[in-house]
Write a structure and sequence with these properties.
Strand order of the largest sheet: 3-2-1-4-5-6-11
Shape: globular
Number of domains: 2
Order of helices and strands: EHEHEHEHHEHEEHEEEHEEHEHH
Number of helices: 11
Bound molecules: NADP nicotinamide-adenine-dinucleotide phosphate, ligand G4F
CATH architecture of the largest domain: 3-Layer(aba) Sandwich
Largest sheet: 7 strands, parallel
Distance between the termini: 48 Å
Oligomer: single chain
């Protein structure tokens, strides 16, 4: 019999990459979508798997929909990727962020405990939980949390409720503490995609400037397609555990900008950049850099795409997309 997986957040960035990865391994994949008049399958289309996923309806803020789904599907694995995942918006929409990101995982865990206790659970935890904290310049599984946004705070709750259901009820529940990961289907609000989309628009004369916030922030950026493998590997181990996943290298937003302009063959990048205070955050996370030693050693996982390759891949994809728009 085929293994089954339920992925929440199937229409986002990671959902489609994970679905593709699992379908290749012969899983039957169910994707949770909210009730929409017009759901947006663009990211699944980009990876060519829209028709290979079975869609089920529910909402992370609606406990009964999640209870019913787990009771009916009893999947082998649940990957909880759904979230209000944009840090910037979490300052203005703190309650919504908390309901989706904190209560959502609680509802799922409770449903698993009640109706399908052998289901393995993956929680999409984040390096944002570390905030200002580090251990000799890096963040690992033992680094304390000091979240700097309602998003970070909401994810700390989700992290601990996942640990608690593992310890209290023996569920196979894992936290993947993933550092920033990007791709050509990254949401346009996030800085990497905002940059590559902006650079492509400048290249084809559809924009004259690119407005950004804090260029000094540093992130440990990897490729989403690599990171979904780590999620899967966590659920294949003998025992459930929590893992930091990143590259171990970080770069500033400014470095990303410079490289993106270079790959688009646009000189003098500085003349296109406008620093706009509306894109600065009330409290910032200045520096994230993973120590992924545990994931390397225990999962045997490694990132395959370098920072430079990632920027190039994203610039090329946006140049191709924007060229079509400019020509139409
Ligand atoms: P994303 O592109 O923002 O996707 C999030 C998905 O969650 C969207 O498809 C969205 O659905 C869904 N969602 C939001 N609210 C929902 C609700 N109330 N009910 C059901 N679904 C809901 O995020 P991502 O980049 O793929 O990240 C996946 C997960 O990893 C998130 O939990 C994020 O917080 C976490 N994470 C991401 C990174 C990263 O760098 N990408 C790093 C660490 C952790 P709609 O399409 O319907 O809006
Ligand atoms: O791309 P960002 O919005 O990502 P951020 O805040 O690091 O969060 C992402 O990664 C987390 C993992 O660490 C995930 F949990 C989370 O869900 C999300 O996927 O911003 C990156 C940096 C920040 O320091 C921000 O202040 O870029 C800086 N930045 C500078 N100008 C900007 C801008 N960010 C955005 N979004 N837009 C700007 O114009």
């Amino acid at each position: 019999m085929k293994k089954t997986a339920l992925i929440t957040g199937i229409l986002g960035q990671d959902g489609p990459y994970l679905a593709k990865f699992l379908i290749r391994r012969d899983y039957k994949v169910y994707g949770l979508i909210r009730r929409y008049s017009n759901p947006n399958f663009e990211n699944l289309d980009y990876l060519g798997i829209t028709s290979k996923v079975e869609y089920v309806e529910g909402d992370m803020t609606d406990e009964s929909s999640l209870l019913n789904l787990i009771r009916l599907l009893r999947p082998n694995e649940v990957y909880n990727l759904a979230a209000q995942s944009f840090v910037g918006s979490s300052f203005e929409q703190a309650k919504l962020t908390t309901e989706v990101n904190s209560l959502g995982p609680l509802y799922l865990l409770n449903a698993i405990k009640l109706f399908s206790p052998t289901t393995k659970f993956y929680q999409a935890s984040t390096s944002e939980m570390f905030g200002l904290q580090h251990t000799n310049g890096y963040q690992d599984e033992k680094t304390p949390f000091h979240p700097r946004s309602p998003y970070g705070v909401s994810k700390v709750y989700a992290y601990w409720i996942t640990v608690n259901f593992r310890e209290a009820y023996g569920l196979f529940a894992c936290n993947g503490i993933l550092f920033n990961h990007e791709s050509p289907i990254r949401g346009l609000q996030f800085v990497t995609r905002k940059i590559t989309d902006g650079v492509a628009k400048i290249k084809y004369g559809l924009a004259k400037e690119l407005r950004l916030g804090n260029l000094d922030a540093k992130r440990d950026w990897g490729f989403a397609g690599d990171y979904v493998e780590a999620m899967y590997l966590m659920l294949q181990q003998e025992n459930p555990d929590d893992y930091v996943v990143g590259t171990g290298e970080n770069h500033s937003v400014e470095e990303f900008v410079q490289l993106a302009f270079k790959y688009a063959d646009i000189k003098d990048w500085k003349k296109y950049i406008v620093i706009d205070p509306q894109f600065k955050r009330p409290s910032e996370v200045p520096n994230l850099k993973a120590n992924p030693k545990k994931a390397f050693e225990k999962l045997g996982w490694r990132p395959k795409i370098s920072f430079q390759e990632l920027v190039k891949m994203m610039v090329e994809a946006d140049l191709k997309r924007i060229k079509k728009t400019a020509e139409s």
